[in-house]
Amino acid sequence: MRFRLDPTPAQDVLLSTHCGQARFLWNLCLEQWRLWQPGKRAPGYAELNRQLTELRAAEPWLASGSVTAQQQVLRDLDQAKRNFFGGTHRRPTWRKKDRDEGFRTVAVLPEHVRRLNRRWSAVFVPKVGWVRFRCTRVVPDSVKSYRVTWDASGRWHIAFAHIPAAIAGPGTGEVVGLDRGVAVSVMSSEGEAFHAPSLRPKQAERLLRLRRRLAVAQRGSNRRGRLKRAIARLRARETDQRKDWVEQTTTDLARRYDVVKVEDLDVRAMTRSAKGTKERPGRRVRQKAGLNRAILAQGWGLFLARLEHKARGRVRRVDPKQTSQRCSACGHVATENRESQAAFRCVACGFACNADLNAARNIAVGQTVTARGALGKSSRAVNREPQCLAFVA
After folding, report:
1. Active-site entry in 238, 263, 308, 319
2. Where are the alpha helices (DSSP H) in the chain?
3. Is residue 266 annotated as a catalytic residue, yes or no?
4. Mind listing the pLDDT tens digit for each residue in 90-142?
5. Where are the domains of the chain?
6. Considering 78, 101, 319, 356, which one is annotated as catalytic?
7. Which of 179, 238, 264, 308 is catalytic?
8. What is the pTM of this model?
């Protein structure tokens, strides 16, 4: 559950100090871990916590911050290292100023959050006091921790760690297939098209002008800082619009259908750069970069993640192999069936429709074409339960 914080100028300075302390500790412990001698065990959380006590005694700047928030930095780094060695996440990286700003607080009690009026509530932040936030939903008493973050556009947010209840299906047995694309963000097997919002033409033009001015601005100057904040505000607007669209669309689909089938796409591999290496440089790098930006602008990954959170246990991932080349009417598979990016016409039976709609219908059936051309149930169709907390924007 994520809300907008509204700190006073004095509280803004204290929150920024907390973020700086968390970033400093993270980078310091990460450097210590990377410089540790090979073959020897690096210090764990208990040893790092002992070192933190000594460091706070020697550094008044650290002692002025919240020890709870600083201890959570050590816990987060310890968990990040466990995830890395477990093979589920990448190696922990450095935290950069004005990009990775935030801290986490645990041991939150119900009395640490109070309602002020219909629109505003307040949360108690250690060493800062009561900070107002825009309350659009009721914060449950079961919340035990929260994370405070700052983005490049200058906004403060607070996210309470809470797993929301899944949305119940209609109970009618309705099944829908969803095809994700670029021209049409999501096409359903019922013929309903969903388009992810983007910046208006004037806003996109202004963003382009700001980027051109930023390219020639002197590094470290006040003008460059203002340009970066202006670009961040436009980017934040675009991100907020896309997240709002994802939330509304996934909620609507989870309420209307009992089973939702989505093609199992590896978005990270699809958006990988094509620049290659010096020995083997890539081809059509600029075209591939444009396609990557178009794919990421549709919010494919966030859409599927939120759909699995809301329709818990009712989402099936289907192998996307040949779903765009197979005729949903007769089952014939041929590359010639795709007349263009948007048009589909079967060369066997003459069936014609929108290409995205045809693919969505194949996904809804849940069948794919094997190497020999026979139809069969997808072996990659899985039902994955969400394993992480959902921070709703």
Report:
1. 263
2. 9-34, 45-58, 60-63, 67-86, 201-216, 222-256, 267-270, 285-296, 300-310, 355-365
3. no
4. 999 999 998 889 999 998 999 999 999 999 999 999 999 999 999 988 898 88
5. 2-160, 175-317, 320-377
6. 356
7. 179
8. 0.80
